Amino acid sequence: MYKRKIDDRWSFKEANTKEFTHCYHNYPAMMIPQIARTLIEEYKPEGRLRLIFDPYMGSGTTLVEASLAGIDSIGADLNPLARLMGKVKTTHYNYESVLRQFRVMQSELIFYSEDKVIERNFDRISNYSFWYDEKTLLKLSFLSQLIKDAEDKDFFNIALAETVREVSFTRNGEFKRYRMNKDSIAKFNPNTFNLFEKKVLRNLEGLKTYNECANKVAASIYDFNSTNDIPSNIIADNAVDMVVTSPPYGDSRTTVAYGQFSRWANEWFNFENARNLDRLLMGGKKSKEELFKTESIREVLDEIDSLEHKRYLEVISFLNDYYLSIQHVAKTVRSGGVVCYVVGDRRVKDVQIPLDYFTAEMFEKCGYKHHITLVREIPNKRMPSKTSPTNKVGAKVSTMSHEYIVILKKS
Ligand SMILES: C[S@@+](CC[C@H](N)C(=O)[O-])C[C@H]1O[C@@H](n2cnc3c(N)ncnc32)[C@H](O)[C@@H]1O
Question: Of 82, 288, 296, 346, which has the fewest beta carbons less than 10 angstroms from its beta carbon?
Fold first, then answer.
């Protein structure tokens, strides 16, 4: 139907995925930078390549790769933490100046005492004494206090954002908010300042190589929701030459919980929608019927519906949003432009949903022609690889072992 090609070259098993500013902050389901890089190199459209668009930019991998390639880019995400990451990762801060600011902070950290902390109100953080030790909260507050005096606040806030999550009582290696058990909490004694300092130094190394290699092009970041609309004053129809993106695979509740993962930082910085982000993301609102017409995954949807109607409704809630978003994204691309969507093969009730077929089909309805779908293994993505779709203990099925890079051209 829509031709798939298994290609081991796209697995990038040995690749360093943390080069340049890609090392700044972890994020769920990050795209491997080498994927964006190779797509831009090998699948770029003929003729003009001045603007790359990522409608679900997450931590900004595509935007960083666009600037390394010397191309302007636009990214959008509903998650404020993701937007902060994207902004900081694409900014050419002056290395020497950031280092000087950091040395000033370090000299203050040496003489830390709790009575120096000014902001002691943590009400913006839900249930804060459940998630944090009081001493840790005061140290975090002191870091924020020092950052307020720095010139390049956001550079330091990115290091703080990661620290805020890592020193909380959330279980390591989970995207969702699960508290550690009592024994683990009793033993948990993170060195807040040291963690922050290590992150700043790591990020400074990334900044140095980014400044050496990346071009000073525009990387613009927005909070629009492409499911509803793409404002034409931001991206005019036919303005984009290439789309490189990895959309969510399903709603945040049953797949990857971007909002829960980001809540520590979003609440710390008092960003909007910190508490209800997952409901705003694709598939967050329940639909009752399909808005699209599909042949490519008709049988799959019917099968899930026959197994459990509730799960079917969850799936189509996501697909409705995804379909609307594709319609809006499709309009922004010029004739001859290329779109590359990296999607997963999600399973629901042990039925595999070929999101690559659906993606290709919906774009073809918008005047695109499917070129190829490259199939790759996902070796180093932080993803829940197993789930229990039947809710039976032990009935584990692999959810995502392959990724599909769907490549289409606008006719
Ligand atoms: C798979 S992640 C993108 C990862 C990114 N490629 C990276 O390398 O970090 C999908 C992103 O889509 C965002 N998202 C979900 N629904 C959205 C919507 N309706 N509008 C904009 N962004 C949305 C999520 O917040 C998440 O950051």
Answer: 288
